[in-house]
Design goal:
With about 250 residues, the chain is α/β, with parallel strands linked by helices. It has a single domain, classed as Thiamin diphosphate (ThDP)-binding fold, Pyr/PP domains (Rossmann fold, 3-Layer(aba) Sandwich), CATH 3.40.50. It has eleven helices and seven strands. A seven-stranded mixed sheet has the order 2-1-3-4-6-5-7, sandwiched between helices. β1, α2 and β2 form a beta-alpha-beta unit. It is globular and about 50 Å long. The model has no long low-confidence stretch (mean pLDDT about 95).
Length: about 250
């Protein structure tokens, strides 16, 4: 019988993520895939600003820091000068879809050969729970006290759909981490994205639907119910682009 082991590219440092937060889960999934692919010494994690920055404490491999929203630009430079490396960014919705929107669109449109993992919890997690570009209509945040109103703040941005409309990306998918099935699908999706990158196929994008119990003002269990009833129906999981499968 197989025995579960901590992924070798994660330190034994106890998690500092909030109780019930799925950042710890997604960090583990990425590490498991890297172990599966034998890329522990070859992977490079590009860390921007946000809750993802905590991975500086947990990641055992190479890490390069980036300014807020600029991880795709840093990843572009690193990958072009180190084409044999497995390079990925791990970015939140505020980082990627707000201050970093130009960076992610530019990198995806150029077809840069690295992977972006987008943690979508519909809020600015680290900086105080403000409205993010992905905040749902009616969702309360510290800057939308009565709920997001489309008339004044627009509609939530669906990044997987936006990225998939560009010509260059080769694999774009969204997965929800609130069920065991979704977690297993996310692991497979991350692995496929990394394998395509290692084969030199081009830009890959994985969106992970996550929770934020602290800023949502919910218990971890309540946040799972909210994801099932509200988040997942709006941000529909699925593969939005797969050039290799379409050949």
């Amino acid at each position: 019988m197989a025995e579960y082991k901590r992924p070798s590219c994660l330190k034994t440092t106890p998690s500092g993520f909030c109780p019930g937060c799925m950042h710890s889960l997604s960090t583990k999934l990425i590490a498991e895939v890297i172990d599966d692919l034998g890329q522990q010494q070859n992977a490079c994690h590009i860390v921007p600003v946000g809750c993802s920055t905590l991975n500086l404490l947990y990641w055992k491999g190479d890490i390069v820091g980036a300014a807020h929203g600029r991880a795709p630009a840093v990843a572009t430079g690193f990958k072009r000068t180190n084409p044999e490396r497995l390079v990925f960014t791990y970015q939140g919705d505020g980082d990627l879809a707000a201050i970093g929107l130009a960076e992610i669109i530019g990198a995806a449109n150029r077809g840069e050969n690295f992977t972006v993992i987008f943690a979508n919890n519909q809020t600015y997690g680290m900086t105080g729970g403000q409205m993010a570009p992905t905040t749902l209509i009616g969702q309360k945040t510290t800057t939308t006290r009565f709920g997001r109103d489309a008339a004044t703040t627009g509609f939530p941005m669906k990044m997987a759909e936006i990225i998939s409309e560009l010509e260059a990306p080769v694999f774009v998918a969204r997965y929800a981490l609130n069920t065991p099935k979704g977690i297993n699908e996310a692991r497979k999706g991350i692995k496929k994205a990394f394998e395509l990158q290692l084969a030199g196929k081009g830009f890959t994008f994985i969106e992970l639907l996550m929770n934020c119990p602290t800023n949502w003002g919910m218990t971890p269990l309540q946040s799972l119910d909210y994801m099932e009833s509200t988040t997942v129906p709006f941000f529909k999981p699925g593969v939005y682009k797969d050039k290799e499968a379409d050949k």
